[in-house]
Design a protein that fits this description.
The chain has one helix and three strands. By secondary structure, it is of the alpha+beta class. The protein has a three-stranded antiparallel β-sheet with strand order 1-2-3. A hairpin with a 5-residue loop joins β1 and β2. The longest helix is centred in the last third of the chain and has 39 residues. It is rod-shaped and about 85 Å long. The termini are far apart.
Length: about 90
């Protein structure tokens, strides 16, 4: 954190909660001022994790619907096989 470029760091805060800190070191303007802000890691990733779970659920639902449609289509064509042939 004492370099010459801005960055981020993942560390435990004084309260023991893992946080993601963004910082601007004192070597950059305005000079001699260290600026840092942090947010809890769980809070930062909550929306991402929720969207990931929703995406996985939608993929699974689509897969199950496709399998069900395939079985239904196979059942219809095997129940009336003579309809598939034309003289």
């Amino acid at each position: 954190m004492d370099g010459s470029k801005t960055g981020w760091e993942e560390a435990k805060g004084v309260d023991g909660v893992t946080r993601i800190f963004g910082y601007v070191p004192p070597a950059l303007a305005p000079g001699d001022l260290f600026l840092s802000a942090g947010v809890s890691k769980a809070e930062a990733f909550a929306d991402i994790e929720r969207a990931t779970r929703r995406g996985i659920a939608l993929i699974c639902a689509g897969l199950l619907a496709a399998i069900l449609a395939a079985f239904m289509a196979a059942g219809i064509s095997s129940a009336n096989p003579s309809r598939n042939f034309h003289a």
